[in-house]
Amino acid sequence: MPEGDTVLQTAGRLGTALAGRVLTRSDLRVPRFATADLTGRTVLDVVSRGKHLLTRVEGGLTLHSHLRMDGAWRVYAAGERWRGGPAHQIRAVLGNAEHTAVGYRLPVLELLRTRDEAKAVGHLGPDLLGPDWDPGTALRNLLADPGRPLGDALLDQRNLAGIGNIYKAELCFLARATPWLAVGDLPAPTAARLVTTAKQLLEANRDRPTRTTTTPRTARGHGPKERLWVYGRTDRPCLRCGTPIRTADQDARPTYWCPRCQSGPTQ
Ligand SMILES: [Zn+2]
């Protein structure tokens, strides 16, 4: 499941492969843009905003894509075999003499005028990894609806952009609150620290191949393989207290928590 750091890494790979080079191949396999042809245009840059990717090309156009649950962009050297999935899952192909970028299973793919990018991403709250990061606004947004469960509020990209299901569970653990605790019930210093922690976690992982929220010191005695506090660790001992980690759905997606370390309602 892509989170803001994954999307940022994808933007980096696409930028390295495409930016500053003329497109010699362009194939958008969605009905609305099937006839669009970007060949002959230079790719200017590729940026991420929260979990959205914006590929800007010469002539004031932006290819907007979103990875949602299992979309991916893969970059291949010219002539290399594409291995990202079956051909019918390919939604976009952009290439130049050296590289080909292939977008698989992209649930959102649209061509916009660059000046209209705000229509695609203008609803986003401050981007944890973006130039517009603003912890004060993020905190205000997060607490705007005091009765809202913490897990929901963290995932809502209009509050702050870049947190997916993994960071949601990890941040609740670090705040010692269950994902169902109303945000208004978080002590004020905890809420402020949560926003800072979110920024630190995404920054720490922006270039890492494997997402890590623990540190060797905090997960002491549990070995270097324990990279996450609770996510995906159902029935395994909490790294802090040893209590078995629990799981349940929140908004139809699994979430994880330690019943001892985290206080608040459980569903
Ligand atoms: Zn615990």
Tell me briefly what this model is:
With 267 residues, the chain is of the alpha+beta class.
For the largest beta-sheet, the strand count, sense and barrel status come to: 4 strands, antiparallel
**N/C terminus separation:** 22 Å
Please list the strands of the largest sheet in the order they lie side by side. 1-6-7-5
Tell me the total number of β-strands: 10
Helical content (DSSP H or I, runs of 4+): 10-25%
Overview of this protein structure:
Its cofactor is Zn(2+). With 267 residues, the chain is of the alpha+beta class. The chain has two domains: 4-121, Alpha-Beta Barrel (N-terminal domain of MutM-like DNA repair proteins); 135-257, Orthogonal Bundle (Helicase, Ruva Protein, domain 3). The chain is 24% helix and 21% strand. It has helices at 4-18, 117-121, 135-143, 150-155, 165-174, 188-205; strands at 25-28, 43-49, 52-57, 61-66, 72-77, 90-95, 99-104, 108-113, 246-250, 253-257. The strands form three sheets. It has a four-stranded antiparallel beta sheet, covered by helices on one side. The chain has a four-stranded antiparallel beta sheet with strand order 2-3-4-8. Strand 9 and strand 10 form a beta hairpin. Helix 3 crosses helix 6 and helix 5 (165-174) packs across helix 6. The radius of gyration is 20 Å and the shape is elongated. Zinc ion binds next to loops. The site of zinc ion (ZN) has 7 residues, from loops.
